[in-house]
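Intended use. Records such as the Nitrite reductase small subunit NirD entry shown here are meant for training and evaluating sequence-to-structure methods. They are not intended to support clinical decisions.
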Amino acid sequence: MTTEFETPETVSWHVAAPVSAFPADGGACVKIDGRQIAVFNFSHTGEWYACQNMCPHKMQMILSRGLIGDQQGEPKVACPYHKKTFSLCTGENLNGDSYRIETYPVRVDAGMVYVGL
């Protein structure tokens, strides 16, 4: 299974963790190449998403504990502290603010979750 992203050939896939390490319809933080990455398991739709763990609003490493859902079909995460919301597909701030987040492609293979950097 691969999340619907255009994946450039230059993407390097990194093991994040086994599927069982991620809560159903929730997120967890993994560290890859010195970066904190928030990985989300949308188990109700079978989709996976990844983004930077740092919320750019207050520079806190917290997005993996954010509330996930969708906004008019767009998968999103809301910072648990200040409820700033971000698209998990594009990284766009859905509150209209100018700051955004980095997003990463995700794939699942043989029970393992991989993140593309």
